[in-house]
């Protein structure tokens, strides 16, 4: 099972919109092995394109073994993140078949990849001067809590804490304990995650703060579990 498989509790094409969006968000950050016509020469690659009834598609898997298993043997491939592959295919007007025969199988046509690249271009909106913070709306918590927890979990070690709060007519994701040098990348990653989720009334911004937060907001537990201390080796066996 891979990270994509773990999200595919329901097959992609049978899943509801929020689950499909979470799978697409994870796909963007997953390194894929995409089939090539031949071994790459330098930086130039020629994707192997298959003419399906719904339009031409490339083929990629989230492990090399899966790709080789689909073809029944070794195959020329290139490894690249899903976001990079989506951009290449958008330029070619082709779709993408991912993990055929696996729990996370998905067939993304050119229109879907166009939507995906648009979501990945989402830019963060700073929230430096917002209204008084308060409890997030229950329907917003229901829609955003789980997918935000998954994305924030990827940031353990980079941030000390995170919370979701109501702010005026909208909401804000608050990040604490992040190195200022990492703020742009963290904000971009969260803006992308939010772009894959249902739009919320008033919008959802991203802000960085180390101030004491009010009660009633939704806090995310980002505690890094301490490794277990090494066990003391047992003494030598008793010889009889």
Can you offer a commentary on this structure?
InterPro entries: SseB_N. It holds the Pfam family SseB. This is SseB family protein. Mean pLDDT is 85; it is low at 235-240. Strand 8 (161-167) and strand 9 (170-176) form a beta hairpin. This protein has 240 residues and is of the alpha+beta class. Helix 4 crosses helix 5 (110-120) and helix 6 crosses helix 7. The protein has two domains: 3-120, Trna Endonuclease, Chain: A, domain 1; 133-220. It contains seven helices and eleven strands. The N and C termini lie far apart (47 Å). It has helices at residues 3-7, 17-29, 64-71, 82-92, 110-120, 138-153, 183-195, and strands at residues 31-35, 49-52, 55-61, 77-81, 95-98, 106-108, 133-134, 161-167, 170-176, 204-208, 218-220. Helices cover 32% and strands 22% of the residues. Strands 1, 2, 3, 4, 5 and 6 form a six-stranded mixed sheet that branches.
Number of β-strand runs: 11
Mean pLDDT: 85
Taking the sheet with the most strands, its summary is: 6 strands, mixed
Low-pLDDT runs of 5+ residues are 235-240
Number of helices: 7
The CATH class label of the largest domain is: Alpha Beta
Going by CATH, the architecture of the largest domain would be: 3-Layer(aba) Sandwich
